[in-house]
């Protein structure tokens, strides 16, 4: 077992973190034999934590709050201002209950129905457009999931000439936010554009105009009331609506990793004959592949927990990628082995691709059932396709956020199964 919080030598680690965002924390901690290291990120005092035991401290300590935790650059792009990610305590639990209601239970069936219907449309489109090299999978999945998200939430499609811009803007939020300077600026503009458009729809819906479908998530968010009985400010309601639309489109990243895993581990296809096997495969893709590097909080009042000391005002980053590979919890964590999920249910602090703890109480993602259901649907369909990539050219760009295969994966044979 590793103890305590070590000290990084570098005065600031922003560049080192950016150079290896998924592995920086685990490597720095391993080098010192600790569960955390203290240093600076974006010039601010920061504690970097890794591993399941540290994850428990991160989620269960009442001194670790979210309201001024995320950097402004992320609020302006990926996250948005005033949304559930930035709330604490009772206000957070109340808002979170809305998301859990919208994203679990019967909602999963409704999502799958929308996704199945749109897959058929995407498949036909892909079939017509099949070229020698096939269709680029990542943009194809973005398109499928954009159409699915809008239909499921009951948001009207923008006019045909604005649709591609709208889809592109949604992708920018998660795919360009942490890229080059021009990409980041595009993501900022995309958020402004999307919030303005959705804000107008929300105001119309509140004026009883039938913009959103009556039984959809969009209308529920537009009409949601905080504990004080008031509706959300229009801009915040738009942020929360984007909080369900954007991540559905972002599941395209995980679907890309499913295809990567199918190519590299052909023997794992045998698992896809049963529902439990498909689930095990999807869970191992979520555990193994890089997507969301870290979660962020800020210390309000110095404290000690489980041998870790935190100073007032520090930022805390929890390593999500490395924690899902914690060698104290996982056998051979760096091997892709879906069968590990056939034996045991994952722990709430050791399996954290979408955050840890309890989704109702903590900031753990409320969309895990959605992500798993969409990935399971996609992996069943993709298992019968052919792919351009040779298995010796499947290296991963770990510097990109989110990480992706260096070579674009293209698939052929998405047409109707005979
Ligand atoms: C929160 C990852 C899919 C909605 C989070 C967090 C992570 C995450 C890491 C933050 C955990 C924390 O701060 O402690 C992912 C990944 C996904 C995904 C990798 C795959 C695409 C979804 C889906 C939805 C969704 C499909 C909804 C349709 C949310 C919301 C939050 C959240 C609303 C904020 C929760 C809170 O602050 O309490 N997600 N997520 N996510 N996710 Fe997801």
In summary, what is this structure?
Helix content is 48%, strand content 11%.
Helix content: 40-55%
Strand order of the largest sheet: 1-2-3-9-6-4
- Biggest sheet descriptor: 6 strands, mixed
Counting structural domains, the number is 1
What would you give as the CATH superfamily? Cytochrome P450
Cα-to-Cα separation, first versus last residue: 54 Å
Mean pLDDT: 94
Fold-level CATH name: Cytochrome p450
Bound molecules: protoporphyrin IX containing FE
CATH hierarchy: architecture = Orthogonal Bundle
- Order of H and E elements: EHHEEHEHHHEHHHHHHEEEEHHHEEEE
Cofactor: heme
Family: Belongs to the cytochrome P450 family.
GO molecular function: heme binding; iron ion binding; monooxygenase activity; oxidoreductase activity, acting on paired donors, with incorporation or reduction of molecular oxygen
Protein name: Fatty-acid peroxygenase
Task: Describe the protein.
By secondary structure, the chain is α+β, with helices and mostly antiparallel strands. The protein has a single domain, classed as Cytochrome P450 (Cytochrome p450, Orthogonal Bundle), CATH 1.10.630.10. Helices cover 48% and strands 11% of the residues. The chain contains 15 helices and 13 strands. The strands form 4 sheets. A 6-stranded mixed β-sheet has the order 1-2-3-9-6-4, with helices on both faces. Strands 5-13-10 form a 3-stranded antiparallel β-sheet. Strands 7-8 form a two-stranded antiparallel sheet. Helix 7 packs antiparallel against helix 11 and helix 11 packs across helix 12. The model has no long low-confidence stretch (mean pLDDT 94). The structure holds protoporphyrin IX containing FE. Protoporphyrin IX containing FE (HEM) binds next to helix 5, helix 11 and helix 15.
């Amino acid at each position: 077992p590793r103890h305590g919080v070590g000290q990084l030598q570098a005065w600031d680690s922003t560049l080192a973190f950016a150079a290896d965002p998924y592995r920086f924390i685990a490597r720095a901690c391993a080098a010192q034999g600790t569960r955390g290291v203290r240093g600076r990120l974006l010039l601010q005092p920061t504690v970097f934590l890794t591993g399941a035991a540290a994850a428990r401290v991160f989620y269960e300590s009442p001194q670790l709050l979210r309201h001024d935790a995320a950097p402004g650059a992320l609020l302006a792009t990926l996250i948005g201002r005033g949304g559930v990610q930035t709330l604490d305590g009772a206000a957070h639990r109340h808002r979170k209950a809305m998301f859990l209601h919208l994203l679990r239970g019967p909602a999963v069936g409704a999502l799958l129905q929308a996704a199945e219907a749109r897959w058929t449309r995407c498949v036909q489109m892909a079939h017509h457009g099949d070229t020698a090299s096939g269709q680029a999978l990542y943009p194809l999945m973005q398109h499928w999931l954009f159409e699915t998200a809008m239909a499921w939430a009951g948001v009207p499609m923008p006019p045909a000439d604005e649709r591609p811009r709208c889809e592109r803007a949604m992708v920018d939020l998660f795919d360009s936010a942490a890229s080059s300077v021009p990409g980041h600026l595009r993501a900022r503009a995309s958020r402004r554009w999307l919030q303005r458009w959705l804000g107008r729809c929300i105001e119309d819906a509140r004026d009883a105009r039938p913009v959103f479908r009556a039984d959809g998530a969009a209308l529920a968010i537009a009409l949601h009331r905080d504990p004080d009985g008031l509706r959300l400010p229009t801009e915040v309601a738009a942020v929360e609506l984007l909080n369900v639309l954007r991540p559905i489109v972002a599941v395209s990243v995980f679907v890309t990793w499913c295809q990567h895993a199918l190519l590299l581990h052909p023997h794992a296809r045998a698992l896809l004959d049963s529902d439990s096997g498909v689930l095990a495969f999807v869970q191992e893709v979520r555990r193994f592949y890089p997507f969301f590097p870290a979660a962020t909080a800020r210390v309000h009042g110095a404290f000690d927990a489980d041998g870790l000391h935190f100073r007032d005002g520090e930022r805390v980053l929890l390593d999500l990628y490395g924690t899902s590979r914690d060698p104290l919890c996982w056998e051979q964590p760096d091997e892709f082995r879906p069968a590990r999920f056939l034996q045991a249910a994952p722990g709430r602090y050791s399996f954290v691709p979408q955050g840890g703890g309890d989704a109702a109480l903590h900031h753990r993602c409320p969309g895990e059932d959605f992500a798993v259901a969409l990935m399971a649907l996609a992996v069943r369909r993709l298992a019968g396709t052919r792919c351009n990539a040779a298995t010796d050219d499947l290296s991963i760009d770990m510097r990109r956020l989110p990480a992706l295969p260096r070579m674009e994966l293209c698939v052929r044979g998405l047409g109707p199964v005979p």
